[in-house]
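Okay, is this right?
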Amino acid sequence: MNIMLFHSAFGLRPAVEAAADRLRAAGHEVWTPDLFEGRTFDTVEEGMAFKDEIGKDELLKRAVLAAAPYSDRGLVYAGFSFGAATAQTLALGDDKAKGLLLLHGTSDIAEGVSVDELPVQLHVAEPDPFETDDWLTAWYLQMGRTGADVEVYRYAGAGHIYTDPDLPDYDEEAAEATWRVALGFLETL
């Protein structure tokens, strides 16, 4: 598979590159665009402030420009937290998308979006302060109405971005379970 992997609000950190390397080792081609142009952050608050400073439209433009040269190949869009929200937006707007792998995040769904059984897999902590139970229920129902084929995996007791070993939320057991399931998902596409 061809995978476009977007970073979280922490920026393009070593954990994102390590995830890309894990995916490459499984035989996938992976791109990791840097939407923050080299900036990384130590706290989610700093990253979110920088993200807001750049603005949603500019970040979406950067993401579209990064994916555009490869979209004809049929991309699997993937991302971490803020990057998952970005991946979701692009996947739902790309009729050649092969799949959507969401790690630690989701996004609003535009009115009238329709996909043809797009395979979607979400991995998220339980509970997650950014992905509440009510939000996830509504998101799941909305994604189903778009025509997506959605699977949701919850990880009790894990922190928000539990796959990044350099962050306090890291949970090795949940991270390894996530990668095992996600790699299996990618093999089905």
Q: What stands out?
A: The chain has a mean pLDDT of 97. Residues 106 and 136 are 8 Å apart (CA to CA). The beta strands are 2-6, 29-31, 75-80, 99-103, 119-126, 149-156. The first helix runs from residue 14 to 25.
